[in-house]
Amino acid sequence: DAQEEKPKPKVFLPSLIPPKIPDGERVDFDDIHRKRMEKDLLELQTLIEGHFVDRKKDEEEIVALKERIEKRRSERAEQHRIQAEREKERQSRIAEERARKEDEESRKRAEEEAKKKKTMSNISLHFGGYIQKTDSRRGGKRQTEREKKKKILSERRKHL
Question: For the chain, which residues score pLDDT lower than 70?
């Protein structure tokens, strides 16, 4: 049924010699039948041959298409693999850069802290020297409130 619905390809048949009908009372029906059978057989053979040629072409196209699909699949897989490697390398470079910057910043912070400590110790040393100089000018070291209080109390006792 499905084959009947498809349009049949036009087949070019070699021109057949029409059966000869003799000019007399005798008509050779066997010859007519044989010629018709030869014609039908030839038409059927050309249809079969055309069908197999078309089928062979279709099979070749299917094989070529499958090969193209497989080739494309492998190319895409390779592209994805290369892209994943590049992304991995990029991420590792970014991580290295980040770690290097953090190390550099921590080193700078440590240097700044060391500078601050050094300057603070220098200031306190110089300032301590300054205090000693002023105390030596005043005549001794500086007294705390407690020492002042004891001195005053001791002086009062002596008077009594």
Answer: 1-25, 125-141, 158-160
